[in-house]
Amino acid sequence: MDEEFLEKKVLPILLKAGIACLFLICIVFAVGYLISPEPGSYEENIFVKIIDTLHDKVNPFRTPAPLNEFVKIYDFEFSSNDLNYFDWAGKTAVEVGYLTDETSDWRSVVLNSDYKKNYVKLALRGDSADHWGSDKKSYKLKTTDELSNRYNIIILENRVYFGSIFAEWLANKLGLVTAHYEIALVKINGKPFGLYLIEESWNDYLLKREKLDKTIIKYSDEWVKMRTEEIGHRENWELDVDNAIIESDSNGKIYSRLATALQMVKDNDYENFDEYFDTDELAGSEAFRAIFGQVHNFKSDNLRLYYNKSNEKFSFVARSEGAILELQGCNFGGTDLLDYIISNPDVLEKRNEILEKLLENEDELFEYYNELEEKYIDVILLDSTMVRRSNKAYYYIKLNRRNLEHNVELLKTCLTN
Fold it and tell me: Which parts of 201-353 are beta strand (E)?
């Protein structure tokens, strides 16, 4: 093949092909940035999936973000046995459908922090394969220091990015006790595993730190096993007192009062409501729940209750998993327990007073959300370890804000009618 043939025939063809490919790539990236599917259509849109994948995996101009420059680092050292165990446990849990006792063992590992080695324990956490079905897993952490709380180390995508940090801010603004959240980079044996949400566990240590004479009541997650094995998940799981887990109840008094309170809910009995339920605290948590449009965080094993030892009354913990959903009505419950609480006139009246005061300065809500978005969105979208595509991450961050706007407008209408 002579040089003249290469110069006149082959090179022009290669040049044109290269220009065409570059043009096509530019179009793909442009559409990838501009396309904005309607809610509910995202997963079914194969065109969007293809564009997103090309944008994230092929784009030569997309480089991983230097995450350590923006967030705290949790740097773990796993032994080869630890690595093998967590790999086996995750795969086994996927096959079974949930974490069993065998796949939930605590493993002793090293956490490098503040230029020293800390010996901590980790175990897998989560009620679905989103948390342990890939190399990137969610964990729960406890230290050997009895004065320190436990923490959940959760894949950031499974908590709608910085939504829980927004929830912490809102809870503080409403005067509610809340857990602390932060976004951190997790490394295992020097390898970056991307961004995680560090969530302080809801337990009595948190209350002691706040100097509150209360205890937290959790609910068993046994329903996950029941659901998976198709035994049948009973509705209103939280109304069965035997599903409640009470950390400090030496004489059974809390259990007894909770049984009575839950029976009142079943009977729709309000006669002794004020003797068992804390109206003021419930009003605050209901205002919080209305802004987030949430039922999921207040049902089944997600529910957390306070028991105030000083007045012997129950209320809700203002807990969030980050998602802001569209509020479905002015006085929306969603479970028998939530319907019972929000149907109490005193709770509703006090909730509305709290919301009126909050929404007098509604701009603060959006300003803080915008502040979090500005701080985190670029580093989130450039996290190359994300399972979720970057355009989908962008979509959910914007959807959270859109739902926040919807809820604020709906509540303003509710309060004026």
Answer: 214-219, 244-246, 305-308, 313-316
